[in-house]
Amino acid sequence: MNERIILKDKTFEVYIPENKIVEAIKQIARDIVRDMEGRNPLFVGILNGAYMFVAELMSKLPPAYELTFAAYSSYHGTKSEGIVKELLPVHIDNKDRPIILLEDIIDTGLTMQYVMNRLRRAGAVDVRLATMFIKPDSLKCDIRPDYVGMEIDNDFIIGFGLDYDGYGRSLRSIYRIVE
To answer: What is the DSSP letter of 109?
Structure first.
């Protein structure tokens, strides 16, 4: 696990190999199938970072589930700006049905707290959160995802949809920044 890459002005090394990511996503899928039996959830993939997580997860779920995407932003470079920007809201009627948000990583938690509260105010009966990664030491609010692939350290990471200024999203493993 010594592979390194350089993107723009930063060096990254392999942190979590693809096979561990895929196994964690399989477990999330099993848990969702169990919890959503007999229900009609709407899955909302959060762009741009979650696209690989969404594709992998949805391939492990029954095809009858409905999927849409939304986009919110609070990052620039390697830092969160702390202000949530709604770039693409959920456009499907979500009243009286459960929603499962699919996020790549929970860092401060502020973006997902904003989105979850917004969907509840719009009439969703149940808003759940599935995330590939969570950084418990970075949380700045009381948010508890329902489905978590892995807890990770407070390193800046890229790969499997996560990026550094738009670069590195297509990497199949997770890489962390080398200071």
So the answer is: S
Catalytic site residue 107? yes
Q: Looking at 13-22, 54-63, 106-115, which range is the least confident one?
A: 106-115
Model pLDDT, residue 75: 56
- Predicted confidence (pLDDT) per residue in 15-53, tens digit: 999 999 999 999 999 999 999 999 989 999 999 899 999
Q: Give the DSSP letter of residue 172.
A: S
Query: Would you say 150 and 132 are in contact if contact means Cβ atoms under 8 Å apart?
Result: yes
Closest by Cα among 110, 150, 108 to 130: 150
User: Is the CB of residue 39 less than 8 Å from the CB of residue 62?
Assistant: no
Burial of 8 (0-12, 13-18, 19+ CB in 10 A): exposed
pTM of the predicted protein model: 0.90
Considering 107, 126, 137, 165, which one is annotated as catalytic?
107
Tokens for 125?
Answer: 């009966």
